Amino acid sequence: MSTAVPDQKVRIVSSTAVKPSSPTPTHRRTLNLSLLDQLFPAGWSHSLLFYARPGGGGESLSSRMRASLCETLTDFYPLAGRLRGSARIDCNDEGAYWVEARADLPLADVLARPDGTLLAQFLPSSHPETSLLAALGCLLIVQITTFTCGGVAVATCGSHKLLDGSSLAFFLRSWSARSAGRFEGGRPPPPRFLGDSLVGPKEVPFMLSDYAGMESCATRRFVFHGSKISALRAEAVHSARPGESTRFTRVELVLALIVRCALSASRSVTGSSRHPTLLRQMVNLRNRLSPALRDNDVVGNLAFGINILYENSESTFHELVSNIRREMISFTKGAQASGSDSGELMSIACGSIGTAGDFFGKWKEESRFYRCSSLCGFRLYEVDFGSGKPAWLTSLSLAKNFVYMVDAKGGDGIDAWVTLDRRDMVVFERDEELLTYAAPNPGVVHHVMHHSRF
């Protein structure tokens, strides 16, 4: 099939199901999901990787990737199944969905000034032909887009009912290793699907996704280079009180600055400082349980949101980052104490949801709700399908008051995608404190030309 709309630069040219190369055994035909899987909405976990002029051409790469995906799905068999309700996957080998597309522009044009609206066209979940697949229970869609220059975009949309950021990264590394032939002569360690073995599904009366809101929003990209993050860390450490933890992560430092500037923008627009704020940050549970779980073989939602409450919207940068660090320490201690006790983990999960529900019930329209998710540290720049590592990669959410972070190309910096109310964004993107540390949407063409090995 071939489709296009006037405002789009990308057109789908073919689509088909891709099934596992070997049938799933009968005893694996059902995967019951956990409470943490259940709490995630039935949306997509995205990744978008760009490759410049793959050896042998885009069509050769696409053919190799498709064949290796069939083999990879034999191990990641639930991704070829269908979601039934909110807590069960029927591993029936109906297949993942494979989409091939063409872009009527060169890759360099995309990377000169990355734009969220254009980037969304490389995601299969944005097209009418594929956007309804989630409602039909499909768990994985892949879109391969070839540019006029021969470059390729690889977009992966995996159901958030099964894949958190760590799981998606593990899948991509496994699939790319097969495509590149790095598993020749031996079978890779199979993934472990925890399902309901850790925490069984429950009836939950409240879902944070109810507050996702996407009306009248604007999305912008800001790059925080490693040297600027170091300067932020120095400022936070200098302001620390005796006895306070100063082991701030990159994500915590960048998030605190973004939230501070977003709150300042909101005050400027509304003229009111009465903005009680809930910040919800997603964290990886794997290394916070006791015993810890490895990132490289466990598949499932082992990410969880911690709540940071601010009743004073005029908090300083130090107050914001210190509160984030304090809540992270407290949450980690609780998770480690619970170990593999499903009752304790259930208590932590429901307690967090209840805190958010109480907050919204108390403050209603006076409140501000910000969310952050991060793919930093998941080694996505190592995803090599056999023709080199990504020239650039990203992932973004267009939900209101959302901050999405990925590792910046070629260093220890962070690419941050920030989505705010349009009126707030006008003020936010001009904030002098923000611009001291962040570069607004710099181009990445230099990396394509000089750092890719194609």
TrEMBL record:
PANTHER family: F21J9.9, SALUTARIDINOL 7-O-ACETYLTRANSFERASE-LIKE
Assigned keywords, A-Z: Acyltransferase, Transferase
Any Pfam family hit: Transferase
Highest taxon, organism lineage: Eukaryota
Protein name: Uncharacterized protein
GO MF term set: acyltransferase activity
Family in the record: Belongs to the plant acyltransferase family.
